[in-house]
């Protein structure tokens, strides 16, 4: 029976008018999903906080002059009741008010206080933790999740916990919706995910406790990212092999567009739960795709629904202005191509049954699997570590977030082209981007986030973000080409699952800043550099014949007697054979 790729290649066209329409519709999905993922930049933005003190009104009456403004009076009361701390970020010593302590005082001590005189009582005053709650600086944000649930001091770790819950949901959604989409169809999975993600996001805005908030974040990630994955599958299944990688990369660029739009919404909406609703509720509009976007003909053929597939193929042909043969599912119209003629031996049939364990049985395959697992973990670790920390770079949160999204578009574009450069190839491109990204990350950690240094720190950080984002596109292609056909899809899927581990860990590593401000960026940078260096012993895949069997996969890149890696013969690779690319998503 003829394959759907043959129908696209020889009859419908690999990327005709019909496919362009489908692409433009489905490519809208990454925009809101990027909102959901990057909202913590503003939900957990760093703002000033200090202990709440009782009897503030009475204290104000005792210490404030009659001609004091409200702001002057609040500042004086704060100076009396809150201890100060001295820190040095690299631009000289800075005195700030303590976030987690207050002075114990008796209101009667201030009954005879003369306004304007020196404040000396707290030199020997007792300090206690914030036992009466906190006050927050609302000059930039009217409300954040931090002040909603008092995620400061002893509970500050919960901000990282909420981010990790979301990334755990990404992991679950990547696996779960792959199964659902394969079992029930792409469009059904998409609509179910849209409905559940919208409901969970709406409940999240009204969460009565942090536990409910974190659980809703998890559900939004499972279903929202599941929709993203299904959208990616739809996009790649409607186009031919030679256009699949390009469409996949452009699809992820729409993620960056959403990333860039997020700070625009956040700038005008400074209340977190209103921002959550504004960005979540429109997601329900994707339910309309039930009537607008057809089911994937590739999936319909795979489950034996050829009549339904034929209806969609006929419509595609009409829009693309091509004529179909009478018996489209026979091989009679297909041009003879010697590369399509293969003999299925018993050994080849057995290769279809290989499992994950087989990727670890043979030494060379095991080496490649372990190295790439670490590379994927390091890649997402640095990506999300940089993304979630943009509000701590200094300068304007909104501009920093916009730039962080903007650098991804040229980064993805470069990820399409530089792997084909003869000088670098797949392996060289991945090494260069990972190492330069790591070095830039380390360099940024030593730039003070204050004064005239802010723009330098932001620039160096964005260089790191650019390189890491670029490497994301490269590592998918490289992983797919490095492994043999029987386990190629499995290798990409499992590698992407390892990547989610990096996303889960990244928020926790950001907590290390409490020990030393530079430590998280140093860890991210070193991780990226180590990943780049580990790739060196792996073989180049550009222009090489891809391994078709497990045996060929074991020989591919293996060191032989002359000390050189053994690869295949050179030929032009038009398609890496990535049939299952549903995991290709940040």
Describe the structure in your own words.
- The strands form four sheets. The protein has a two-stranded antiparallel sheet. Strands 2-3 form a two-stranded antiparallel sheet.
- The chain is mainly alpha-helical and 586 residues long.
- The C terminus is likely disordered.
- The protein is globular.
- The protein contains 25 helices and eight strands.
Characteristic key phrases:
single chain, 586 residues, 25 helices, 8 strands, disordered C terminus
Layout of SSEs?
Blueprint lengths: L3 H9 L4 H10 L3 H9 L1 H4 L5 E3 L4 H8 L6 H12 L2 E5 L4 E5 L3 E3 L23 E3 L4 E3 L8 H5 L7 H28 L1 H20 L4 H28 L3 H28 L3 H9 L8 H4 L4 H6 L3 H15 L25 H6 L6 H4 L1 H26 L8 H10 L1 H10 L7 H21 L8 H29 L2 H26 L8 H16 L15 H6 L2 E2 L5 E2 L20
Helix pairs in contact: 2-10, 3-10, 3-11, 5-6, 8-9, 8-10, 8-23, 9-10, 9-12, 10-11, 11-19, 11-20, 18-22, 18-23, 18-24, 20-22, 21-22, 21-24, 22-23
């Amino acid at each position: 029976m003829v394959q759907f790729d043959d129908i696209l290649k020889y009859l419908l066209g690999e990327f005709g008018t019909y496919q362009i329409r489908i692409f433009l519709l489905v490519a809208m999905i990454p925009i809101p999903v990027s909102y959901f993922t990057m909202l913590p930049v503003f939900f957990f933005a760093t703002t000033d906080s200090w202990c709440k003190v009782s009897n503030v009104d009475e204290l104000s009456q005792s210490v404030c002059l009659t001609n004091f403004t409200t702001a002057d009076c609040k500042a004086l009361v704060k100076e009396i009741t809150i201890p100060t701390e001295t820190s040095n970020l690299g631009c000289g010593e800075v005195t700030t008010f303590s976030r987690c302590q207050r002075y114990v005082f008796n209101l009667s001590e201030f009954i005879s206080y003369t306004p304007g005189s020196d404040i000396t009582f707290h030199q020997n005053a007792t300090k206690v933790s914030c036992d009466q709650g906190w006050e927050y600086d609302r000059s930039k944000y009217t409300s954040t999740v931090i002040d909603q649930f008092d995620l400061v001091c002893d509970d500050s770790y919960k901000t990282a916990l909420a981010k990790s819950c979301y990334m755990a949901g990404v992991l679950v959604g990547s696996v779960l919706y792959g199964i659902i989409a394969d079992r029930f169809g792409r469009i059904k999975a998409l609509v179910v995910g849209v409905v559940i993600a919208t409901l969970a996001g709406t409940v999240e805005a009204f969460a009565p406790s942090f536990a409910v908030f974190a659980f809703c974040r998890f559900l939004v990630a499972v279903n929202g990212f599941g929709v993203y994955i299904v959208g990616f599958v739809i996009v790649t299944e409607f186009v031919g092999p030679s256009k699949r990688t390009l469409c996949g990369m452009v699809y992820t660029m729409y993620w960056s567009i959403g990333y860039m739009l997020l700070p625009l919404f956040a700038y005008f909406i400074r209340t977190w739960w209103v921002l959550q609703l504004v960005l979540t509720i429109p997601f329900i509009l994707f339910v309309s795709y039930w009537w607008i976007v057809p089911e994937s003909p590739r999936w319909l053929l795979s489950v034996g629904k050829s009549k339904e597939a034929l209806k969609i193929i006929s419509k595609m042909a009409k829009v693309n202005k091509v004529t179909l043969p009478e018996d489209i599912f026979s091989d009679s119209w297909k041009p003879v191509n010697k590369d399509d003629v293969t003999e299925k031996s018993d050994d080849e049939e057995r290769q279809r049954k290989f499992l994950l364990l087989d990727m670890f049985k043979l030494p060379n395959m095991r080496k490649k699997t372990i190295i790439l697992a670490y590379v994927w973990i390091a890649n997402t670790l640095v990506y999300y570590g940089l993304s979630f920390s943009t509000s701590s770079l200094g300068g304007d949160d909104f501009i920093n977030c916009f730039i962080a999204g903007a650098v991804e578009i040229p980064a993805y574009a470069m990820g399409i082209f530089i792997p084909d450069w003869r000088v670098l190839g797949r392996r060289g491109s991945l090494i260069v981007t990972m190492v330069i990204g790591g070095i830039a990350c380390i360099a940024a950690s030593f730039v003070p986030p204050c004064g005239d240094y802010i723009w330098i720190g932001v620039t160096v950080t964005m260089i790191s973000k650019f390189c890491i984002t670029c490497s994301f596109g490269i590592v998918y292609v490289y992983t797919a080409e490095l492994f043999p056909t029987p386990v190629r899809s499995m290798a990409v899927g499992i590698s992407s699952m390892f990547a989610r581990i990096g996303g889960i860990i990244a928020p926790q590593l950001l907590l290390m800043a409490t020990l030393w401000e530079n430590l998280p960026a140093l860890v991210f940078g070193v991780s990226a550099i180590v990943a780049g260096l580990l790739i060196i012993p792996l073989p180049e895949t550009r222009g090489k014949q891809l391994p078709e069997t497990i045996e060929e996969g074991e020989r591919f890149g293996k060191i032989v007697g002359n000390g050189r890696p053994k690869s295949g013969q050179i030929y032009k690779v038009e398609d890496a054979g990535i049939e299952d690319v549903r995991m290709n998503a940040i």
